[in-house]
Amino acid sequence: MQDTATRVLIGDSLGFHIFFVLIGIGLPIIISIFEYIAYKRKDKQLLEEVRRWTVAATVFVVTGIVSGTLIAVQMALIWPHFMAFTSRVVGPAFMFEGYFFLLEAAFLSLFILSWGKIKGFKHWWIGLGVIVGSLGSAVVITLVNAWMNEPTGFRLENGQPVDVNITAALFTSTGFVTVLHSVLSYITALSLAVAGIYAIRYIRAKTTSKKELFRYIGLRLAVVGVIFGTATAIFGDLTAKNLIVKNPQKLAAYELQMKTESAAAYRIGGTYNETTGEVENAIEIPYLLSFLATGNPNGTVTGLDSVPKMYWPPLVTHILFDIKMVTAMITLLVPLGLLLLYLKPLKHRLERLRWLMWRLLPVAGIAAFVTVELGWIMAEIGRQPFSIHGIMLTKDSFTTDASVITFGYIFPIAFVMLFIATFVALPVALKHTKVEA
C-alpha cells in the first residue's frame, strides 16, 4: 500500500509540474520568434500581442518556481534513499539547474522592465537570455532523468557509487535523444496551444483587421508547430531505436512484445493473457516493429522473455502508447492540413474544409499537451520496477516512515490549488495589456 501511495504521489506531482515546465520552455521561444517577426514587419499590432504573451510568461514562471519547489521538497522528504544515491553521481546537475534558473529570472525581469524603453532588436536580444536560462535548466534535469534510464559514469562498491565521472553520467546517447525529443515536443505543444487560442479569436473576431491579425498569427504558429512537431517525430523514432539497445524491456512493454523474435509485428491494441502467455485481440502489422526498431523488416526485437517477470514494466504502457500515437497524429495532421489548404492551388477552394480545420486547431493544441503528458507518464512507468534502471528498485528508494506518506497527500492538493490559482491570476495579469478582439 505504501509503495502504491508513494508512486501515485510523485506521479500526480510530476504530471502537474510538466505542464508548467512545458509552458516555461515553449513560451519564451514563441515570444522570441514573433517579436523578431514584428520588428522585421514593423507590425505594432503583432508586437502588442507578443507583449501579452510576455505577461503570461511571467505568471507561468512564478507558478513554475512554486511547482519546482514543491517537487524538490517532496523528493527530499519522501525519496531520501533515491536522492542520496543520485546526488553522489549527478548532484552537480541540480546546482547547474539553479544557475540556469537564476539566469532565466534575471533576463525575464530585464525583458519585462525594458519593454518600450529598449526598443527594436536590442530588446529582442535580451529575450535570448530568457531562452538560454529556461532551456538550460530543462536540459540538465532531463539529462538526470535520462541517466536514471541509463545509469553510467560510476562503478558500484558495496552498493555505493565510486569513481564518479559526471560528464560520462550526463552526456550519453540516451541523454542526447531524450533532451531533443522532450524540448522539441514542448515547443510543438505550446505553439499549437497558442495557435488554438488564436483560431478561436479568429473565428469570433468581428472586424476585418482583427480577423487578419489573428489569422496571420494562427497560421504562423501552425507553421512552427508543424516544423517542431516533425522534428519531434524524428527524434521519437531515434528514441525507440535507442531503447532497443539500452532498455529493450521498456520498448517490449510499449509494444506488447512478449517474446524475442525476428520479423516482429507492430501491435495496435490487444491484451496479454497471463494464462496462455499470448497477446490477444491485437491488430498486427507484419514486420513493421522490426523495421521501426532496427531498420530491417527481419531484424530481431528483444521481448519481455529476456528478463524475469518480476522486472517487467507495467503492461499498461502499451495502452498509453496507443493513445499517444493517436494524439500525436492529431497534433501533426490538423495544423499541416490547415496549412495545405492555404497553398495557392487550394486557396480559393475548399472553403468549408478550411472552416472545419480552423475549428479543429484548438483540438490539436489540446492533443499536443496530452501527447507530452503521456510521453512522460510512459517514460516513468516504463522504467518500473526501478527508479534507477538496473541499480535501485523503486520500493527501496522511498522513506519507510508512514507518517511522511500520510502527510504527503498535501502535495497533490497543493498542485491542484496552484493550477487553479494560475488560471485565476492569468486574466488579471493580462487585463492591463488587453487587446480588443
Question: Which terms would index this structure?
Answer:
437 residues, mainly alpha, two-stranded antiparallel sheet, 13 helices
Describe the structure.
There is one protein chain. With 437 residues, the protein is mainly alpha-helical. It has one domain (2-260, 302-433). It has helices at residues 2-41, 44-78, 80-113, 121-149, 166-170, 173-204, 208-246, 248-255, 288-294, 316-340, 351-382, 402-407, 410-430; strands spanning 155-157, 160-162, 261-262, 266-268, 271-273, 278-280, 283-285, 300-301, 386-388, 392-393. The strands form 5 sheets. Strands 1-2 form a two-stranded antiparallel ribbon.
Number of extended strands: 10
> What is the string of SSEs from the N terminus onward?
HHHHEEHHHHEEEEEHEHHEEHH
| Number of individual domains | 1
Major sheet: 2 strands, antiparallel
Shape: globular
Distance between the termini: 52 Å
**Helical amount:** over 70%
Secondary structure blueprint with pairings:
Layout: H1 2-41, H2 44-78, H3 80-113, H4 121-149, E1 155-157, E2 160-162, H5 166-170, H6 173-204, H7 208-246, H8 248-255, E3 261-262, E4 266-268, E5 271-273, E6 278-280, E7 283-285, H9 288-294, E8 300-301, H10 316-340, H11 351-382, E9 386-388, E10 392-393, H12 402-407, H13 410-430
Antiparallel strand pairs: 1-2, 3-8, 4-7, 5-6, 9-10
